Amino acid sequence: MKTLVIGAGNMGSAFAKQLHAAGHAVRVTARQADKAAELAAQYPGVSAVAPDGAADGVDVVIVATAYPDAVAALRGVGGLDGKVVIDITNPLTVDYMGLTLGFNTSAAEEIARAVPQAHVVKAFNTLFAQVLAAGADFGQGRQASVFVAADDASAKSTVTTLAQSLGFATVDAGGLKNARYLEPLAGLNIYLGYGAGLGTAIAPTWIHRA
User: Domain Pyrroline-5-carboxylate reductase catalytic N-terminal, which positions (predicted)?
Assistant: First the structure.
């Protein structure tokens, strides 16, 4: 698939690595052009592009920014009409130990309202960047799981196929409104990993045995 990763931080870097390894075409754009260029230079064929028009011709856009920056970032990459947008964000408080949205909405739903021309899919938000970068295989037939929630069946299928191409097991998490459950689940993972000091190795708790 032709993919665009918005963001060159830990998650954006992990996506660039895994998408490249799986043979997908990868573009990277970021608020800081030098960081996008530095990331792209690590993988032959991955290109760093300016935000304006970055989404032209791609199949999937992955928004790997902080939630408060997501809408502006998406609106800055060109036409999103009919495109699949993977929202991996979590609406975290400043200390990362709480959520700023919940119960009657979610980050994914708010993003979908802001860019209604796109097909927004919630996925990958429950994975630590370290787990994504290391890959899905935990050995002994175990794979990390990616929960996929969306209202558009075709978009959900596309993201499911993409996640599986990276080696992850996938779980159909229903409609986009179920991001209201997935985002707190990510919050729990973050608390266990960092707040409770269990480390990112706690992520194998959310695994699938093949």
Answer: 5-91
CATH of the domain at 166: 3.40.50.720
The pLDDT, as a whole number, for residue 209 is 67
pTM: 0.94
* Residues 1, 113: Cα–Cα separation, whole Å: 25
Say if residues 190 and 92 touch (Cβ distance below 8 Å).
yes
| Cα 161 to Cα 54, 146, 158, 172, distances in angstroms | 23, 11, 5, 12
Residue 170, H or E segment: strand 169-172
Q: Could you give the number of structural domains in the chain?
A: 1
Q: Please write the tens of the pLDDT for every residue from 119-157.
A: 999 999 999 999 999 988 876 677 889 999 999 999 999
Q: Which domain holds residue 114?
A: 2-209
Query: For residue 163, what are its two tokens?
Result: 């996640």
Contacts of 203 (CB under 8 A, 6+ apart): 127, 128, 130, 131, 144, 189, 193
DSSP code of 143? Answer: E
Determine the Cα–Cα distance for residues 116 and 74; give it in Å rounded to an integer: 11
Asked whether 4 and 59 are in contact (CB, 8 A), the reply is no
Classify residue 65 by its DSSP letter.
Answer: S
**CB-CB contact of 87 with 111 (8 Å):** yes
